Amino acid sequence: MHLADIDYLAFRGDSFWHKASALSKLIFAAVVISVVVVTRKPLPLVLTLSFLLALLFMAGVPLIKFGHLLFFPALFGSVFAFSRIGGSWLPVTLVIVKSLTAASALLLLIATTGAPAIFACLRLIFPPLIVDALFITYRSFFILLDELTNLFTALKVKGGYSAANLVLNLRNIAGALGLLLVRSLETGERMYKVLVLRGYQEGLRFGGRWYQPTRYDLGPLLACFLVLAWVVIL
Amino acid sequence: MTKVVKVKCLRHVYPDKTEVKLCGLDFVVRAKEKVLILGPNGSGKTTLLNHIIGLLKPVEGEVRVLGVDPVKEFNFLRRRVGIVLQNVEEQIIGPTVWDDVALAPRNFGLNPREVQEMVETVLKEINIWHLKDKIPHYLSGGEKKKVALAGAMVMRPELLILDEPFDGLDPRSKKEILELLRKFNREFGTTIIMANHDVNLVPLIADKVYVISEGSIRLYGTPREIFSRLDVLRQAGLEPPLLVELFYELAQKGVAVDIPLTLEEARRQLLPLLCPGSP
Amino acid sequence: MTKVVKVKCLRHVYPDKTEVKLCGLDFVVRAKEKVLILGPNGSGKTTLLNHIIGLLKPVEGEVRVLGVDPVKEFNFLRRRVGIVLQNVEEQIIGPTVWDDVALAPRNFGLNPREVQEMVETVLKEINIWHLKDKIPHYLSGGEKKKVALAGAMVMRPELLILDEPFDGLDPRSKKEILELLRKFNREFGTTIIMANHDVNLVPLIADKVYVISEGSIRLYGTPREIFSRLDVLRQAGLEPPLLVELFYELAQKGVAVDIPLTLEEARRQLLPLLCPGSP
Amino acid sequence: MSHLHIPDGVIPPIWLALGFSGTAGLLALAIVRTRREEITSSLSRLSVICAFMLLAMSIPLGFLPVHLNLTVLAGILLGPWLGIIASFIVNLILALVGHGGITVVGLNTLVVGSEVVLGYYLFRALRQHMRPTAAAALATALTLLVSMTLMIGLVGLTQIEPSLLLHDHGFSHEEEHEMEALQEISLVRFTQIILPISLVGIILESAVTSLLISYLLKVKPDLISTPKDEGQIEDEQGLPR
């Protein structure tokens, strides 16, 4: 799933799209997704998809590395399309283009925006408990990811992981996961202590200056305008 | 001086029925002291600290922190006691350094301007202002320790408690953290309690030392007093510093030397004995 | 003597574009040596070890372990090289000590009787036979290290690699692990490579020492040679042992002493100089 | 087959809206319930389990096109209410990285949430009659069978979309008739594609869940309990509220 790689990209990149605020990029993603859900016109959809791919390229998102994130939605889209529509190619293509467009919009969002900034914006619509949980899940994910990586290294050096031997893998992975689970629950207990000690109140006000508009916000907003324009006109 | 912490013959039973007892000497910390709790792993150091913090409730015995019972007055103490736990990774919860350090003041309901000011001050004091927008999982071990320290110091606590603060740090980071602790103690009069198993730290930071082993407080004193009781240290499974040991042996052979705490002290004593000609 | 490991001017680029270079001197380990890699955190120690293990593939440079390329011959080397990684918590995977130690031989498809025998032997050698049915999770830090060591030694490797094997251990456990390593080296001729940032270990275990800092192998030599270059050690952010420093300063003041590696050596040199009457 | 890997733009808006409103209602209930208990403790536990699920999903199992989900395990460890919140969080994060559409998060939460809840109650019921490891395996298998049926049903329900799509673009009547004829077969076809993959997934999932439960029972037996028991243990420890 490459959560860690994407996270890295979001924090290390500094394209014009990275510099725009999370809110403006979220609005753009929302506009594209609404278009995908609502419209059935092929031309604007193809145009939007090409536009997104261009934006991804300009934002420095390596499409070769993250291409699978677009490939899977397309694949699943086609499974659904084929199983229900059958052989006629236009609707099938349309479904695939739709899935690709939506996936590209999301990839553009998360590969250029730190997850915490997105979570901070979500505070506008979600209850505080959910947003707090998103923040702590995010942090826990990286703590546990380190541990999982270490566990896998340990397995590898003891000859416990090979691409070919499924049974061996499963047995060893289950062991590693068991350990990771115990460690996760203990991490949770320790985090609980830390939260208590630091006076946790529901609604962690994390997220720094996510709402501060920058001049780079013009980018996403202009993009919204463009997409809406050709959907309406074409 | 006022007693900041007082612990008297503690007994604790964990849910899994393990019993930890800490009797022997009373554990007393006075204002503005830097106190080191020395003991091997598993001797009960963390249990003692958890009682002082108020995370554990003793089955028997008395714990007083800043004059109150830390379990009952937990909320009162939270603003006055800063804590750096052993596993620093799991106490950095915020998505960025700035957010994490701001956690406590925000939770205690301070207004954004105050929060901004407090965080800025503490980050600059600890020299990690440049890290303020960094993501915790891209920091080095030493940097994480400093962030955790900033999170503990941001409320300007009267008492700072650290569990194994130097574990896994290389000499340079260790030195930096030591320097910061000394600075807080000197400039703000912060009382400091540290748990550790490295005897070499004693001369570098401690005003007073408690030696704990097997659930008993065995020894209490200044570093010099502690180092004159090598037998107790060894019994507790702690290795005295080589310099101390060398001078201890010299003294036993009849050479007129005191136990030195620093290299400087050692040299000052030895040089005149060796070459009377030099200054 | 045969060269067990040879690394020549390594360059590695991590996926996040961080570059680690390890040029300077060649890194060579000969059979049956105990080699310590000294350097502060982040100096490239773990990167070097990961190349030797075959977990990382160098962008430039040459790595040879037991005569082969460790990346290409990963599976070949797995039976011949024992490894204790840094985080001992995250490498004990089996639900019991016995299961964990049996992990490697089982993975290599040995039959149950062989596995049984190998595990029993190694557990007894390391003196943890009594722990065999314990759940690793509840062991102490020192015991966990021993279990990890057993897991690495169970295949009787020619080469044993340890990353920060003494971190977080109290003096007693440290001593026990040191003793075990010396024993394996002595009795089975196991070549040992350790990475560490604690200079005080040098006299206790190392035949040869490499000092690494900022991606360069700065210094190579016996412990005595290393300790005669305090300038390089300090530059690399490493603190020389106080005893070494004291004697270094004495020597500079014209006192006729050599750098001592042990307390014994220090005492033997000082006593005659101080009180000519004593033996 | 735990969540629907349906991308955006496949399912008609009405179903998406229904999914979101159902999820919103459930979440609201779950949050009210959670807030009545000790929120800090719930929050930290919820978060690490979400993180654990995300990590378990990212482990490659070799050549198989399936990944672990561990939803029933989450139910056992978190209970039904926190479990529903966890389903939502995990689905939201997955959708953000393009794993299942963002517009399908509502529906997905309902599907996964039903697994969590069903898994929790099945495990509790079965545990009275058999060893916990067997109970975990059986609860997982049963739950996933039910949810798979649910999903196929859902796809069946929502399958009017393609024809709507065609109407709009004025395709010829022949093509439309062809479509209608294909509708019934299509569900079968879909099932044929999904079923074998799902069954492998169910077997794997049940085995791993059972192994994990047995690991937990060995190492930390106190963790497999209802949230109420937990509260009591914490009281004994004297942890302040």
Descriptive overview:
- The complex is a heterotetramer, with one copy of chain A (234 residues), two copies of chain B (279 residues) and one copy of chain D (241 residues).
- Chain A has helices at 3-12, 16-19, 22-38, 42-58, 63-85, 89-112, 115-122, 128-157, 166-197, 218-233.
- By secondary structure, chain A is an all-alpha fold.
- Chain A folds into two domains: 3-122 and 209-233, no CATH class; 128-197, no CATH class.
- In chain A, helix 3 (22-38) runs parallel beside helix 10, helix 4 (42-58) runs parallel beside helix 6 (89-112) and helix 5 (63-85) runs antiparallel to helix 6.
- The relative contact order of chain A is 0.17.
- Chain B has 279 residues and is α/β, with parallel strands linked by helices.
- Chain B has two domains: 3-238, P-loop containing nucleotide triphosphate hydrolases (Rossmann fold, 3-Layer(aba) Sandwich), CATH 3.40.50.300; 241-279, no CATH class.
- The two termini of chain B are 40 Å apart.
- By secondary structure, chain D is an all-alpha fold.
- Chain D has a single domain (13-228), classed as Arp2/3 complex 21 kDa subunit ARPC3, CATH 1.10.1760.20.
- Chain D has eight helices and no strands.
- Chain D has helices at residues 13-36, 39-57, 71-96, 105-127, 132-157, 161-168, 173-219, 227-237.
- Chain D is globular, with a radius of gyration of 20 Å.
- The chains are: A mainly alpha (234), B alpha/beta (279), D mainly alpha (241).
- Chains in contact: A-B, A-C, A-D, B-C, B-D, C-D.
- The C-D interface holds C 95, 135, 137-138 and D 215, 218-220.
Reported for the largest beta sheet of chain A, the result is:
none
Question: Which pair has the most extensive contact?
Answer: A-D, 82 and 84 residues
For this structure, the quaternary state is heterotetramer
- Low-pLDDT runs of chain D: 160-185, 226-241
Helix content of chain D: over 70%
Q: Which of globular, elongated, flat, extended, rod-shaped describes the shape of chain A?
A: globular
**How many domains make up the 3D coordinates of chain A?**
2
Put simply, the count of helices of chain A is: 10
CATH architectural designation of chain D: Orthogonal Bundle
Structural class of chain D: mainly alpha
CATH topology of chain D: Arp2/3 complex 21 kDa subunit ARPC3
Mean pLDDT of chain A: 84
Q: End-to-end span of chain A in angstroms? A: 36 Å
> Which whole number gives the mean pLDDT of chain D?
77
Report the major sheet of chain D. none
Order of helices and strands of chain D: HHHHHHHH
* Molecular shape of chain D: globular
